[in-house]
Amino acid sequence: MSSPSHTNALNAQHSTGPRTDAGKKRSSLNALRHGLTSQVVVLPTEDLAAYTVFTGGFHDDLQPKNLIEKQLVQSLADTQWRLNRCAALESNLYSLAFADAEAKQPADLEGNAIEEAATELTTALGMARAFRENADAIRVLSMHEQRLQRAFHKTLQQLQSLQSQRKAEELQQLQQAAALQQVNKLKGLPYNPADDGFVCSNREIDDLVSCEARLLEAQAAALYGFDPAKIAAAQAIGA
Questions:
Q1: FRET partner for 73 with CA separation of 20 to 30 A, picked from 33, 37, 157, 172?
Q2: Which of 39, 36, 86, 81 is closest to 58 using CA atoms?
Q3: Cβ neighbour number for residue 238 with a 10 Å cutoff
Q4: pTM (2 decimals)?
Q5: Torsion angle defined by CA atoms of residues 187, 188, 189 and 191, in that order, rounded to the nearest 10 degrees
Q6: Alpha-carbon span 181 to 192, nearest angstrom
Q7: Radius of gyration of the chain from Cα atoms?
Q8: Could you read off the pLDDT of 26-55 as tens digits, one per residue?
Q9: Who wins on pLDDT, 47 or 134?
Q10: Residues sharing a CB contact under 8 Å with residue 171, sequence separation 6 or more, in sequence order
């Protein structure tokens, strides 16, 4: 007797997918859902490829290193995407009002008369009419936009705090590993950071030591105004 899972697998092989228009629409949304939240992020009228590039830019710029940071960066990208949508919706409301105003122009206007009708006054009246006729929609849109902006800034602060703490801890561990590496070098022994529980590499340690040495050299040179003659004289005295 076949198990339910085996039967389901066989049925899936013969499935041709949704056949009705409604089913196809629901299925098309699957590709637009965020994998972690299962919420529709990109509307069917929006460009999924553009969304992917947009969110990728956030990850490239903010460089999240762990799961929590990646979640926060994704939340920032999704929130900003929705904020951009709010701006587009507001613009579309006014554009629709302008289009309606043009459609209501008198039919006997021709040539220059039509051009003269499209004056700044007409534009201003059209915007006022759009605001009056869509006041509730614009107010709701504005409130929604404000909530998104607050959410964006709160998430950004969380991310910056976490990244600042992580970077400070990474630098401290790298400095500790560098000190242990120097001790092993004095003893003529190799050093493996992993033996002391560090996740950094010897290359990263060498880069840090080199950077700190050059910074000390730069600070010493700055005392003498970066004057080669004065620096050489100081070095000669020190020797």
A1: 172
A2: 81
A3: 7
A4: 0.66
A5: 90
A6: 8
A7: 32
A8: 444 344 444 333 455 677 767 888 999 999
A9: 47
A10: none
